[in-house]
Automatic annotation (TrEMBL):
InterPro entries documented for this protein: RNA_pol_sigma-70-like (IPR039425), RNA_pol_sigma-70_dom (IPR014284), RNA_pol_sigma70_ECF_RHOBA (IPR014331), RNA_pol_sigma70_r2 (IPR007627), RNA_pol_sigma70_r4_t2 (IPR013249), RNA_pol_sigma_r2 (IPR013325), RNA_pol_sigma_r3/r4-like (IPR013324), WH-like_DNA-bd_sf (IPR036388)
Occurrences of domain RNA polymerase sigma factor 70 region 4 type (ranges): 115-167
Source organism: Posidoniimonas corsicana
Family designation: Belongs to the sigma-70 factor family. ECF subfamily.
GO BP annotation list: DNA-templated transcription initiation
Alphabetized UniProt keyword annotations: Sigma factor, Transcription, Transcription regulation
Name under which the protein is recorded: ECF RNA polymerase sigma factor SigE
Pfam families: Sigma70_r2 (PF04542), Sigma70_r4_2 (PF08281)
GO MF terms held by the record: DNA binding; sigma factor activity
Length: 180
């Protein structure tokens, strides 16, 4: 929409209202991709800046949440790619699966997701559950974890990637069953 002739304060107000309406869902979507609260906050801020810079391109009356989600998906993907060398991260395939199942019109229920994840973690074999706990604990050291398991760091990355994919599909199935 062209904002020429309209007060900048009206533009700010409209943008703020649209962003506020989808804030919770958008943040939840970003968090589901980056898996760390502080990273999700950083990415959310980047997304908000991109949305503001490109707000003149947004057509009022269309789906702001869907537009914001697409920007968030691309921004989170770039964020993850930039950090992939230093940490375990979802593959592009898993990120695409998360993005494709996200519905910006549907309310984000983090409690349901957390409950499903807890259930799925409980179903993991003990060795996989221990690996998840080690890889997601504060101050984790993948070299030390690999040494404890008698494996290479690359093997640990592959193992945790396999477990995360398994958890992702388990949570997805669990939430789908609860929807009926």
């Amino acid at each position: 929409m062209a904002w020429a002739g309209e007060a900048d304060s009206e533009r700010v107000r409209v943008f703020g209202e649209l962003l506020a309406e989808c804030h919770r869902d958008l943040f939840g979507f970003i968090y589901s991709m980056v898996q760390h609260h502080s990273d999700a906050e950083d990415v959310y801020q980047q997304v908000a800046l991109v949305l503001w810079r490109k707000f003149d391109d947004f057509e009022l009356g269309t789906n702001f949440a869907a537009w914001a989600t697409k920007v968030a998906h691309l921004t989170a993907r770039d964020f993850i790619r930039s950090r992939r060398r230093n940490a375990v991260a979802f593959s592009d395939e898993v990120l695409e699966a998360i993005a494709s199942t996200y519905n910006p019109g549907k309310s984000w229920r983090s409690d349901d997701t957390s409950d499903a994840l807890s259930t799925c973690l409980g179903k993991l074999p003990a060795k996989d559950r221990k690996l998840v706990e080690q890889c997601y604990s504060p101050g984790r050291d993948y070299g030390r974890i690999a040494q404890q398991h008698g494996r290479s760091v690359g093997a640990i990355y592959q193992a945790i990637s396999r477990v995360r994919k398994s958890l992702y599909y388990c949570v997805k199935r669990t939430l789908a069953q609860e929807a009926y």
